[in-house]
Amino acid sequence: MLEPVQRIPRYEMLLKDYLRKLPSDSPDWNDAKKSLEIISTAASHSNSAIRKMENLKKLLEIYEMLGEEEDIVNPSNELIKEGQILKLAARNTSAQERYLFLFNNMLLYCVPRFSLVGSKFTVRTRVGIDGMKIVETHNEEYPHTFQVSGKERTLELQASSEQDKEEWIKALQETIDAFHQRHETFRNAIAKDNDLHSEVSTAELGKRAPRWIRDNEVTMCMKCKESFNALTRRRHHCRACGHVVCWKCSDYKAQLEYDGGKLSKVCKDCYQIISGFTDSEEKKRKGILEIESAEVSGNSVVCSFLQYMEKSKPWQKAWCVIPKQDPLVLYMYGAPQDVRAQATIPLLGYVVDDMPRSADLPHSFKLTQSKSVHSFAADSEELKQKWLKIIFLAVTGETPDGLSEHPATLDDHPEPKRKSEC
């Protein structure tokens, strides 16, 4: 069966040998040269067809290994390289066994499946060659590492040896260069990121998957510089820039193009760049509970700790604030530095009862409206009177303009009834 295929290269070899021995002034020279050109073209087509058949056969084998789920059997797809590799985890220092299939237009990042029958691999991520960058990294604990950064995901990989690493880097880079040559985008093909971490540029935020900074590489939030701890300030990753930040600095969500437009956790800086909102615009978008305690406490009519009870629930300590910019609303926080209020009470229309609830709480007072009952207790009578002076104004819709910063007493205000209702 191979005879017809092998005959064409033999004709090419015979004609080349014939032309070498044929005198240049021979009448057969031009015909022999033209025949060689024709047979060389035929041989080239024949070799190309053989390579395509072999490639298609290999694609079918890979298609079966992937459980016949990935649509890779296409004449335009060409397998460049495949092999085992280790993937370094972002959250810890463990190395996980993975398998790569490199094609001329994509990289399949697969997880081995330990099954006697059926598929051998599960595709975890398909990374397109378009926009891919390769960076050689240096890790003292894990040698032979390099980084593959694509729009869909960034992977830090470890080869089995230095030679294996160089072969992968060479194959990946040559594939990237060939891809961009076909698509005439040389301006992106030659660019290499000299930065070890290959940080995503501002223009690419949300469009390219970042490299995650490992948890053990930082001890404090990369935004607010607060130290991490296992209980109250744990580590989180910004899905846009890959930085390790605390919960406070990652309390934002933005649509990321590389992740299919899904809402993902990002840091404040990336949120403002991706969404286009400034600090002032962001404050307007915040819900009423999302105003920081320190923000309102520093510009408040009155603020202090009070004991608080709602209906028949147990008493609890709360940091209570009535801000100057919103003097008809009482904000309650768990602590003075909390970034989010636990609850708010719009005071307008409430009934104030300043009679103590019991002998155990001599400085207590109560706010009621319909079925809502809120009880408060101050540490002293002076503090109680200061709060009552502001609340008596708020329940009637008045603002405390021109109030002194000194503790207020009921003598400064017209004597109210024991129960005030509007």
TrEMBL record:
Chief place where the protein resides: cytoplasm
One GO cellular component term noted in the UniProt record for this chain: cytoskeleton
UniProt entry tagged with the keyword Zinc-finger: yes
Span of domain FYVE-type: 215-275
Compositionally biased region (Basic and acidic residues): 408-422
Keyword Iron (UniProt): no
Annotated PH domain residues: 78-177, 299-396
Domain DH: from-to ranges: 1-49
Family matches, as Pfam families: FYVE (PF01363), PH (PF00169), RhoGEF (PF00621)
Cited PANTHER family: FACIOGENITAL DYSPLASIA PROTEIN, FYVE, RHOGEF AND PH DOMAIN-CONTAINING PROTEIN 4
Region (Disordered): 402-422
Molecular-function GO term, any one: zinc ion binding
Record SUPFAM superfamilies: DBL homology domain (DH-domain) (SSF48065), PH domain-like (SSF50729)
Name the UniProt record assigns to this protein: FYVE, RhoGEF and PH domain-containing protein 4 isoform 5
Highest taxon listed in the record's lineage: Eukaryota
SMART domains registered for this protein in UniProt: FYVE, PH
Compartments reported by the entry: Cytoplasm, Cytoskeleton
Assigned keywords, A-Z: Cytoplasm, Cytoskeleton, Guanine-nucleotide releasing factor, Metal-binding, Phosphoprotein, Repeat, Zinc, Zinc-finger
InterPro entries: DBL_dom_sf, DH_dom, FDG4_N_PH, FGD1-4_PH2, FYVE_RhoGEF_PH, PH-like_dom_sf, PH_domain, Znf_FYVE
